[in-house]
TrEMBL record:
Similarity-based family: Belongs to the arylamine N-acetyltransferase family.
Enzyme Commission numbers on file: 2.3.1.5
GO molecular function: arylamine N-acetyltransferase activity
Top-level taxon: Eukaryota
Organism: Seriola lalandi dorsalis
Gene3D superfamilies: 3.30.2140.20
InterPro entries with a match to the protein in the record: Arylamine_N-AcTrfase, Arylamine_NAT_domain_sf, Papain-like_cys_pep_sf
Protein's recorded name: arylamine N-acetyltransferase
Swiss-Prot/TrEMBL keywords: Acyltransferase, Transferase
Catalytic EC class: transferase
UniProt KW Acyltransferase keyword: yes
Pfam families named among the record's database cross-references: Acetyltransf_2
Keyword set includes Chloroplast: no
C-alpha cells in the first residue's frame, strides 16, 4: 500500500486522518475517480481477490472494478488511514429479476468512528450513495436530489431509496440490497467473486459495463450503449434526464479512454444479454 499514491489516484487533498469529514471526502473522491466496472470479465481476464493485485489494477493501471475489488481495496486504504473498518456481506435485489442474490453477493464496509457506525460503499452502480450513510437511525437520509434509508428487521438491514426522487417519508421506497453486520474477511467472498464471472444469473457475466459518478450526473457504458444521466438542480431549474447513444464496436475503446480513463490490454467483447433469474429464491 502506497497511501499517498492511492490518495493521488482518487484526487484527495487534505490530512489523512480517521475523521468523519475525511471519510466522507475520500468516499466521494473514490466514486468520482474509480469506475465501477466488470471489463476484465469481458476482455479475457479473471478477477482475483488479492490486495496487491487490486492495488496495481486500480491505482497503478487506473482501472476500476466491481464491489469485491473497489470496496476490498478501499477497506485497505481506510485501515491504513487509521479507520476502524469491518467487511460485511450484502445481497443485492436485482432490478430485472426482482430477486435477491446469494449470500456474499455484495461486499460492503462498516466504518466505526467515535462509537458511531457508518455504511460505506464505493463498489456499487447507479443507485449507490455518494457519502456514507448512518447506521444509527432508520429515518430518511438525503443526498442531493436523492433520499435513502436503512430499515431494520431483526438482524437484517435493508438499504432503500426513492430512485431519482425525494417524496419524503411517505414516498415509495425501493430496496437496493439487504445485509447483516456480521464481520467478514475478504476471502469469504472468493466463491461469489467467481460466481459473478461465470453465472448467467449475474449482471457482471451477462453485461459488459462501466459507470462512474460525475459532478452533476453519471455516465454509464453497457454493451453497445453509452448512457449519460444529468441530475436535477433547483438553482438552474434543471431536471433529471438521461440520454442514450448507440455505439459501434470500433468506438468503444475510445469511449472507455475518453470518459472513464480506461485503456484495456486485451480486446473487449461487448455483451448485453438478458439476466437469467437465479434458481434459488433468497
Amino acid at each position: 500500500m502506497d497511501l499517498q499514491k492511492y490518495l493521488l489516484r482518487i484526487g484527495f487533498v487534505g490530512p489523512a486522518e480517521p475523521s468523519l469529514d475525511v471519510l466522507r471526502s475520500v468516499h466521494t473522491c473514490h466514486l468520482l475517480s474509480v469506475p465501477f466496472e466488470d471489463l476484465t470479465v469481458h476482455s479475457n481476464g479473471r478477477v482475483q481477490l488479492d490486495l496487491p493485485l487490486l492495488f496495481d489494477k486500480i491505482v497503478n493501471r487506473r482501472r476500476g472494478g466491481f464491489c469485491f475489488e473497489n470496496n476490498g481495496l478501499f477497506s485497505w486504504l481506510l485501515s491504513k488511514m487509521g479507520f476502524q473498518v469491518t467487511l460485511i456481506s450484502g445481497q443485492v435485489k436485482n432490478s430485472v429479476t426482482s430477486r435477491y442474490g446469494p449470500p456474499f453477493d455484495h461486499l460492503i464496509l462498516m466504518v466505526t468512528i467515535e462509537d458511531r457506525r457508518w455504511l460505506s460503499d464505493v463498489g456499487f452502480g447507479v443507485p449507490g450513495f455518494s457519502t456514507p450513510l448512518s447506521l444509527e437511525h432508520s429515518g430518511p437520509q438525503e443526498q442531493g436530489h436523492r433520499v435513502y434509508r436503512i430499515r431494520k428487521e431483526r438482524d437484517m438491514h435493508f438499504l432503500e431509496w426513492q430512485q431519482e426522487e425525494n417524496r419524503g417519508t411517505d414516498g415509495d421506497w425501493t430496496e437496493i440490497y439487504k445485509f447483516t453486520l456480521d464481520p467478514r474477511c475478504l476471502e469469504d467472498f472468493t466463491e461469489m467473486c467467481q460466481y459473478h464471472q461465470s453465472s448467467p444469473s449475474s449482471i457482471f457475466f451477462c453485461k459488459s459495463l462501466c459507470t462512474v459518478l460525475k459532478p452533476g450526473g453519471r455516465i454509464t457504458y453497457i454493451g453497445h450503449r453509452l448512457i449519460t444521466a444529468t441530475f436535477p438542480n433547483e438553482e438552474t431549474g434543471r431536471v433529471f434526464e438521461t440520454t442514450t447513444r448507440e455505439l459501434k464496436d470500433e468506438e468503444i475503446p475510445g469511449i472507455l479512454e475518453q470518459e472513464f480513463g480506461i485503456v484495456l490490454n486485451s480486446l473487449l467483447i461487448p455483451k448485453d444479454e438478458v439476466i437469467t433469474p437465479p434458481p434459488v429464491v433468497y
